[in-house]
Amino acid sequence: MYIEYIAMELPRKLIGSLSQFWKINVLDIKQLYDSVEKLVFVSISLEKRKTDVVRSRYNSTMRVPKALNPRLQKQLLLRFGVYETVYPVETTPSRTVPDHIEKPEYVLQKQPTVLPDKAEVKDVNQLRGMRRSCKLAANILAHVQKNIYPGITTDDIDGMVHKLTVEAGAYPSPLHYKGFPKSVCTSVNNVAVHGIPDLRPLRDGDIINVDITVSLITVITLCWHQYVNSLQNNAIKTCGPEVPFSEIGASIFRHSKRNGLTVLPAFIGHGIGRYFHGPPDIYHTLNRYRGRMRPGMTFTIEPVLSHGSKHTLILPDGWTVVTEDGARSAQAEHTVLVTEDGAEILTK
Cβ contacts of residue 305 below 8 Å, gap of 6+? Predict the structure, then answer.
C-alpha cells in the first residue's frame, strides 16, 4: 500500500498517526480530519509498488528541497547550492578476493562471532590489531581522497578501494556482508548511507561519503571522512573514563542545532573489534542510553547530517538509504579508543 498526500503545515504527531490507517482496507480517503485543511489524499492503492513511489519522488534533477516560503528556499539555495538527486543505476558484478586472504565468518558461513552483552574492554593484543587495521583504513581513505574527481564513477572508487585492501592482505568488510554486493559504500548527495557503487559519473558539486571498512586478521575497523569533522571532533573531545555514552549524542545535537543542520537519528555508532557491530550503541542526538565509558573500549562515532528533514527512505535494493525530501547529507566516522585521560582516534 502507498499513500500520496500534500501536507505543507501538518504537525509531525499527526503524520505519525497515519500508520494506523495503513491497516485499513480502503480505496479512497479525501480528508483525515475536517480541521486539517491542507491535508489532501491524492490516492491510496494496494497495487502500487514501492519502486513507483520512490521513483516518483526522485524523478527530478538539479533541485533543492521545498521550503515553507520563498525566502527560506532562497537561503537554502545560497547555502547549499543546486545539485542532482541521485537514484541507483547499473553497476558491475562483485569483485573477487584472493584465496590466501582470511575471510570473515559471514563470508565463510561459519558460526558468527558471539557478541558481548556489554561494551568490551580490549586487551593489549586486541588494541594492537585495532591500531593496525585502523591505520590501513586511514591510508586507503587518504589515497581515495586524492583520486576523486568529476567524471569518475563510484564503481571506479570501489575498484580502487578493493585493490588497495587486498594488496595489503586485508578483506574489504562490506563485501557480501548480509548480501551487500560491493567492497565499499559510496553515498552521493541525497543518499545518506549504504550507497552501492555504480556507473554514475560524479559531477562537479556532488557531495560523496566513502565508507571504508577493512578486516585485518579478524579485527574490523571503519573510517569515514566529510566536512562534518568539526562536529564529530567536538563529540570525541567529550569522551573519557566514566563519561556517559549519552553525552556524545548531546554534544552532536547541540553543535548541529547551532549550525542549522539536522541529525538523521536512524543511524548510530557502535562497538567494533572482532565483530562488525556490537555494544555500546552510540546515538548522535539526545538520548538516555545507559552506561559509561571505560579505558580500553573502542567504538565508532558516525553522525549523518542533512540540511532538510530527519526522515529517510530505504530503496528497493534493501541497502541504499536516501533522505525523504531529497536534501543532501554528509557523514563523518572515526573509530575511537577510550584512554586513561581521554580518547584516541584510531582512524586518523
Answer: 228, 231, 256, 261, 262, 263, 264, 329, 330, 331
Q: Please state whether beta strands 191-193 and 321-323 pair in parallel, antiparallel, or not at all (unpaired).
A: antiparallel
Q: List the domain boundaries for the chain.
A: 1-48, 105-345
Contact 347, 222 (CB under 8 A): yes
Query: What pLDDT sits at residue 90?
Result: 96
Give the pLDDT of residue 347.
Answer: 85
Confidence band (pLDDT; 50, 70, 90) for 24?
A: very low
Location of C-alpha cell 556507473: 199
Query: Are 338 and 119 contacting, i.e. CB atoms less than 8 angstroms apart?
Result: no
pLDDT, mean of residues 260-287? 90
- The C-alpha atoms of residue 160 and residue 8 are separated, in whole angstroms, by 44
Which residue has better confidence, 274 or 254? 254
Beta-carbon contacts of residue 79 (< 8 Å; ≥ 6 apart)? 307
Strands (E), the chain: 2-7, 39-45, 171-172, 185-188, 191-193, 208-216, 219-223, 262-263, 269-271, 278-282, 298-301, 304-306, 312-314, 321-323, 329-331, 334-339, 342-345
CA dihedral 175, 196, 265, 64 (to 10 degrees): 170
Say how far apart CA 51 and CA 260 lie, in whole Å: 32
What is the DSSP secondary-structure string of 61-73? -SB----SSHHHH
Q: Which residues contact 233 (CB under 8 A, 6 or more apart)?
A: none
pLDDT score of 52 more than 90: no
Contacts of 173 (CB under 8 A, 6+ apart): 104, 213, 214, 215, 220, 276
Q: Which CATH superfamily is domain 105-345 in?
A: Creatinase/methionine aminopeptidase superfamily (3.90.230.10)
Write down the pLDDT at residue 125.
Answer: 84
Which band of pLDDT confidence, cut at 50, 70 and 90, is reported for residue 11?
very low
Q: Report pLDDT for 111.
A: 63
| Position 299, amino acid | F
Split at pLDDT 50, 70, 90, the class of 228 is low
